[in-house]
Write a structure and sequence with these properties.
single chain, alpha+beta, 6-stranded antiparallel β-sheet, 8 helices, about 30% helix, globular
């Protein structure tokens, strides 16, 4: 058994990861990495494989794919919902999917040779994670961890559209088209938002709960988020109309939506965020759409070691 396991999702990037994999694998070996590889064949399998690798004591488990693959692999580090990853294993990221938002905050390069060099150096940073308890689609409650961003509201609708629709020219275009279609049909929902005991009831577009800064393929949703400060950044996007939503897409991409004085967008930090609604509202967890409100988001300080430049 080699010390490093690469878990690759060949279906990510519209099948591009599978097509590119032989060349990428050769590049990893040229960079000095000696590794085993496991190709996933179904949703959820990456978490199972990752969990076994951590239990075996592998030194590094690498997620090769998009943010959904990173989320699944990261969840394998946590045993039955435990708040902190166990063992000596570090998480590596090889960006190859439709979305690549987690790596943006950490500065992980997308160019395969540069990404391989980062993995070979194995310099790690201990990061926080989020833990969300939510209503599963099939009923009952489930628990999932996230390393990047989760949200409740229109983000869940966008991710659902991305996951069931075709992959377009790039990840940015895929997400932008899905977001535009969601905005044209979206109606804001009544939400109850409880941040560390401070309760607000409002009509809103979404509640963003951020450990890192970017989501939606480059949307700079939480520009002040620090992934190892023991806090979550909470951005509440209120009752925006259609034209405000369309303008807001460019504002969020540029990180200008948190500038002082915006009447319908608020930002704060906290450790525990509970969101509920009298309507059916989907959630998004690192680019995956596992369920709906009610949901409880909690920070897990110093939860996981991630390989960084």
């Amino acid at each position: 058994m080699r010390d490093t396991l690469v878990i690759a999702n060949p279906a990510s990037a519209g099948g591009g990861t599978g097509r590119r994999w032989p060349a990428v694998a050769a590049g990893l070996r040229a960079a000095g990495l000696d590794f085993d590889v496991a190709m996933t064949a179904a949703r959820g399998q990456a978490a199972e494989i990752s969990g076994r690798a951590v239990a075996e004591g592998r030194g590094m488990v690498v997620a090769a794919g998009g943010d959904g693959t990173v989320n699944e692999v990261a969840n394998g580090f946590f045993n039955a919902g435990e708040p902190v990853a166990t063992g000596r294993t570090v998480l590596g990221v090889l960006p190859m999917g439709t979305g690549g938002d987690f790596r943006r905050t950490l500065g992980i390069p997308t160019e395969p040779e540069a990404a391989a060099a980062v993995l070979a150096a194995r310099r790690s940073r201990r990061l926080d994670a989020g833990r969300v308890t939510y209503q599963a689609h099939g009923g009952g409650h489930e628990v999932r961890h996230f390393v990047n961003i989760a949200d409740a509201g229109i983000g869940g609708e966008v991710v659902a559209r991305v996951n069931r629709g075709p992959r377009l020219v790039s990840g940015d275009i895929t997400f932008n088209v899905a977001a535009l279609r969601a905005i044209l049909r979206w109606r804001n929902r009544p939400l109850r938002v409880d941040v560390d005991g401070d309760v607000r009831e409002l009509v809103a577009q979404q509640v963003i709960v951020a450990n890192c800064q970017y989501f939606g393929s480059g949307m700079w949703a939480a520009p002040t988020a620090i992934p190892d400060d023991g806090l979550l950044d909470i951005v509440v996007v209120g009752d925006l109309g259609l034209l405000e939503n369309l303008r807001g897409m460019s504002e969020i991409r540029a990180g200008r939506h948190l500038e002082p004085g915006h009447p319908k967008i608020s930002h704060r930090r906290g450790r525990r965020v509970e969101v509920s609604s009298s309507s059916s509202v989907l959630i998004d967890v690192d680019g995956e759409q596992p369920g709906r409100l009610p949901a409880l988001f909690e920070v897990q300080p110093g939860a996981i070691d991630v390989v960084v430049p």
